[in-house]
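Q: For a teaching session next week I want to show students how multiple molecules come together into a single three-dimensional assembly. I've collected the sequence lines for a complex. Could you give me the predicted structure tokens for the whole thing so I can convert them for display?
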Amino acid sequence: MKITTPEELTQVKETGQKLLFPGKPRINVAMATCCLAKGADLTLNAIEYALKEKNIAADVVPVGCNGLCHSEPVVEVHLPGKPKVIYGNVTDQEVPKILDALKKGAIASELAILRVDAENHVLAGKISYSDNGSVKDYSAIQPADKIGYLAKQHKVILRNAGSINPEDITEYIARGGYEALAKALKMKPATIVDEVTKSGLRGRGGGGFPAGLKWQGCAKAKGDEKYLICNVSEGEPGIGMHRSFLESDPHSVLEGLIIGGYALGARTAYVYIRDNYRLALKRFSKAIEDAAEMGLLGDNIMGSKFGLSVKIKEGGGRFVCGEETALIACIEGRIGEPCQRPPFPVDKGLFGKPTCINNVETWANIPVIILKGSTWYNSIGSAKSKGTKVLSLAGNIARAGMVEVDMGTPLKDVIFEIGGGIAGGKKLKGIQTGGPSGGLLPQSMDKLTVDYDELKNAGSMLGSGGMVIMDDETDMVKIARYFTDFFVQESCGKCTPCREGMCRMYDILGEIMAGRGKKQDLDMLEEIAAPLTQASACALGKTAPVPILSTIKHFRKDYMKYIK
Amino acid sequence: MADLQWTPDGEQLFAKLVEAVPEAMRDTIKPKLLEMLAAKAAGKKVTADIVTRMVKDDVPEPQKSALMQALGAAPADQQQAAEQPAPAVEWTGKSEAMFEIMLGEVPEAMRGVFRGKLLGVLSEKSQGGPVTEEHVTAVVNEIVPDPFKSNILQKYKGLGDFDLNIIDDIIARHGTSRDSLMYILHDIQNEIGYLPKEALIAVSDKCSIHVSAIYNVATFYKTFRLERPGKHHIKLCRGTACNLNDKNDIADEIEEKVVSSSETTLEKTLCLGCCDCAPVVEIDGKLYKGEEAKSKINEITP
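A: Of course. Below is the structure for the complete assembly, covering every listed component.
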């Protein structure tokens, strides 16, 4: 059915509610790529088989990743009127125990890791799982709001991840989905741009450029045809949250794009997805199909005069394609070599037309800003970085995975409270924020907060939110050489300082590691790095020496171990 | 030749004729020509006229035209050929690539004449319809002498066991504009497993994008492969998290083990985007964690 009126949207919402609360047990099995790698598909099969065998009526729903990546495979069981219970590390061995309990209308408490009595959903408001807040028989299980690593998080972007079926649009609508679009279509496009500006939202891709400024530029740009691009390049090593996010809640990105198209006057949007993200691609394609079927894409969206088509473009596995101009080149079917800016894409972008490129997380913020208002959004975060940030915790950390915190949260809290500290009881040595282009910060800097400017001033960057934690066994020279190798391979070769400089630096680091290094080599590395930061056309070249420079600055001792 | 009586001009012309035959073919062709001459001369002395008539009457096309040209005479039906340009042929699958391979075996000087003639033969074979791979193979079998025939057939085997027809479908799906190129290459690789040279040439022809530009794109993006991958495709993640968490050097071990096997293709990637599972390996499209990856690899490699 096509949704053209608010009443029809409410009608679909009610259908979705019935799916989320089916009046019989609902079993959510987390099925994002991270979950599948840990055998969630086997768990799902085991559950379906056992339900049939034990003759139990229950809905089994594949959902996305709920951020409990460290306990996957994760299964959520919700009995009508009872708190939702989350089981961790559920292999096919554990399935019968859980389902035997389920048949009796009970819970296998000894396997449960937490329970959710109610949640505060950013768009849908308070969602109660248990009737009258009753937790009878469930008191042995820890409630989610008492668990530090969950309580410290603030799920705005990840509001639906892991609790709705990403391939079912009605479940997204049941959680307040597409209400922002309905609201936006009644607003003037300029008002929407204004709201985004006032919210203080900054681009989530890397540099943290104010999204409102970009939107204003694109809205003002002259041209009969404009394009939107959603950047899901995610080429940096050590980051996987955009993949998980897109696999968990594709519609939130799509809704942001549709609102953006209306606000900026674009009729075509491209979603650039990194190659090899097959599941994300499949789920996003499904989202596009479903939205079109409901009249939320295509011509006359929700009965208005506005129309938008969304095309998916699969990338080719090059880090540099995350750069705006390189990404445009890739969509145009050319090789991803960055171009000099200006002209900026907002004036002359895809096919020479004004183009607004935003990161996938930036787009996902739009529906929330529109529905909750810029004032609300502006109240979250630090002085100059607003809203929340999705981070990908990886490396030598106890609880790796996808988390979301308010801007301004100290790194210390992220690492030790949310991430559970260093794996294997070791000590923290270094933190890398923002992927390979970010600096390696020493343990003493863990007081810094998740904030664009603070991290930039410290010589690193927030980037798209990668956070790789390194323990005290890590050899920083080896790490610096690893990143240098990465840039040697990923440099597109257009600018000489980047193409040649990185190779020379790689060689020098090799010499140092082989014990043939001299003290002067460190000066030489800094000398070679200088022209890279000045004379490269794009941010890849400009930031390529950052891992080397930051390790020389903060971890000189490691270098001196090699240089005798 | 001993059985034949020659007039001087006849002998001279025949020598010229033999010279025109590509060297590698001469030993095979010469006895056949002599046999035909003997029949034509019917015991009389072989004159230049008889040699010419033999070529004209008995040699099949397209060799006839080539030999007539060598004799300095106009090809048998040159008049006609000028009026009727080489027929426009519709190719399907790999047939065009196969035709080009066949033509590649013809000495360069004669290729121009052969092209038109062979096209004629082919369009006759296909009765005006699209020329299929079977048509080309049949023509090669019927009119090409050895060793060229076996050479050509050998090269056809090297074309691979994929069906180039799919390229038409893929292009029909995405259109021929430049911004479709990445879609097209992705789809070809998904279907065939890699990007064969013939496929790139076919895309170039059909989309009017220079083949060097396509090669540029196909080699810039790491996702594209120009070589056929092994039966098992292993992607070893060498991303930051996998590097840090691989305390037992599983990646090194896999790298060492897999290189030695021909059944498998090993690809090192900079991140598979599944960092909480580090170290992670993708085997035939499915992700495996550390030790599991190792045992899976032991399973598939001898």
